[in-house]
Amino acid sequence: MIAAKRNLFRRLFAGLCSGLLLAALLPLPASAEENSINVYNWGQYISDGTDGYIDVNAAFNEATGIKVNYMTFDSNESLYTKLKTGGSTYDVIIPSDYMIGKLISEDMLEPIDFSHIPNYRYIDESYKNQPYDPDNAYSVPYTWGTVGVIYNTKYVDAEDTGSWDLLWNSKYSGKILMFDNPRDAFAIAEGKLGLSLNTREEEDLRAAAYQLIEQKPLVQAYVMDQIYDKMEREEAWIAPYYAGDYLMMAEENPDLAFYFPKESFNLFIDALCIPKGCQNKEGAEAYINFLCQPEICGENLEYLGYSAPETAAKEYMDPEVTGSDIAYPAEDVLSRGESFLNLPVEANQMMDSLWLEVKTQGGTDPYALWCMIAFVAAVLLYLAASRIRRKRRIARRCARWKTEENKI
User: Which among 337, 329, 357, 95 has a CA at the least distance from the CA of 198?
Assistant: First the structure.
C-alpha cells in the first residue's frame, strides 16, 4: 500500500508546521456566531487523518479556530439540486468545471475576494482563466483529474480492454457498473461514438441515449460512491470512474487495473466556490486559502490520489505519487481528454429527459417484451373468441325457443 510507505513523522510534522504558519496568515471570524463554516464536498474527497495523513479540517480548526461542518454529495447534479431548492446553507462548495459555469450563469455564486487568499499565487497558470470562469472571479482550483475504465484483472481478459467498448461487452453482463449521472454517462457514449463530449445536437444526444439503452441490460447497477465497495469486494468487475478514486481502490484490491480509453475521455477541474447565501464568507475564504497552502495541498492530494493544480505542492508529495502515469498522464494521453462545458439549457433539458428514458424504459429485454405482447394478444384473442362463441350459443338457443313456440 502506498500509504504504508509514507514517513509518518514527516507528515505530522509538516501538517503541524503549516498549521502554525497559517495561523498568522488567516483571518479569524469577527464573532462567535461566525466561528464555523459549512463545507459541501464530494464523498471521500479530503484527507481525514486516515493512514497517518493530515486531517485537513481538524488542522484548519486548530490553525484558525473556525470549526468545519462537513457534508458530502455524490454528483454535480445533486449539488445543483440542493442549492437550487434551498433549505440548506453552505459556505464552501466544490463543483466541477461545467457546473461552475452553470452556477455562474444563474448568479448562484459569490465573487471571491482574492486579497483574502494570498496562497492563490501558488496555483499554476495553466489552471487559471478556464472557460467556466474566464476572469477567475468565482473559483479556485482544488484538484484536476481524468475519467477512465477500472477493471479486475482476475476476471477481465486483457485483449478486451483499451476501449469504451468494454462497457458494452456481453461477456461481462451483470458485472458492469455505470455512472449514475447523465453528464458522465452521456460523455462515455459520445466518446464511444466519436462525438464531442460537449455536443448539443439533438441527433447526437439521441444516438448517445440509444447506446446507453443498448448497454442497460448488461449493467449491474448505476453508481457513484457505491463503486468503492462493489469494485473492492469484486461484486463488479468493470466500471468507468475517476482516476484518483481508482488509486484509492487499488490500495484495497491490487487486482484492479485502469486504462484511458483510446477514443476520448473527460478531463476535469474541481474548484472551490462560495455559493450565494453563505453565512461566513470571511471564514470560507480563509478555508480556501488554507487548502491552497502547498504543504496542505500536497498532503491532501497525496492521500486522495488526485492531481495537484500547483507545482509547489509536489515538493511535499511522495515521488511515487507525482510520478504516477495515472495521476499525472503523459501529454499524448492528455491530448485525448476533453473538458466539459456548460451546455445550453435546451441541451441539458434534452439530456435529462433522455437519461430518464434510459433509466426507466431503456432496460426492457426485447425478447421478454415481445413475449409479453404475444401473451397479452393471445389472452385478448381468447377472450374475443369466447365472447363470439357465447353469442353464437345464445343465438342458437334463441332460435330453438322460437322454433318451439311456433310449433305450439
Answer: 337
Cell 486516515 belongs to residue: 50
Give the full edge-to-edge strand order of the sheet including 92-93.
67-73, 36-42, 92-93
Distance CA 306, CA 142 (A): 10
Q: 211: part of which helix (H) or strand (E)?
A: helix 202-215
| DSSP E strand boundaries for 224-310 | 238-242, 256-259, 265-272
Residue for cell digits 448562484?
A: 108
pLDDT tens track for 291-308: 999 999 999 999 999 999
In the predicted model, residues of the chain with pLDDT beneath 50 are: 1-32, 363-372, 376, 379, 405
- Is the separation of the CB atoms in 35 and 67 below 8 Å? yes
190 CB-contact burial (10 Å; exposed 0-12 / middle 13-18 / buried 19+) = buried
DSSP string over 27-72: PPPSSGGGSEEEEEEETT-S-BSGGG--BHHHHHHHHHS-EEEEEE
For 250-288, what is each residue's pLDDT tens digit?
Answer: 999 999 999 999 999 999 999 999 999 999 999 999 999
| Paired sense of beta strands 140-152 and 238-242, if any | antiparallel
Contact 6, 51 (CB under 8 A): yes
| DSSP SS3 for 186 | helix
Q: What do you get for the CA distance between the two ends of the chain, in Å?
A: 105
What's the rounded Cα separation, in Å, for the pair 247 and 268? Answer: 17
> Rounded distance, CA 351 to CA 353, Å?
5
Give the count of beta carbons closer than 10 Å to the beta carbon of residue 210: 15
How far, CA to CA in Å, does 288 sit from each of 107, 147, 274? 20, 25, 9
pLDDT tens track for 137-163: 999 999 999 999 999 999 999 999 999
Share of the chain above pLDDT 90, in %: 79
pTM above 0.85, yes or no: no
Q: Phi then psi for 142, rounded to 5 degrees? A: -105, -50
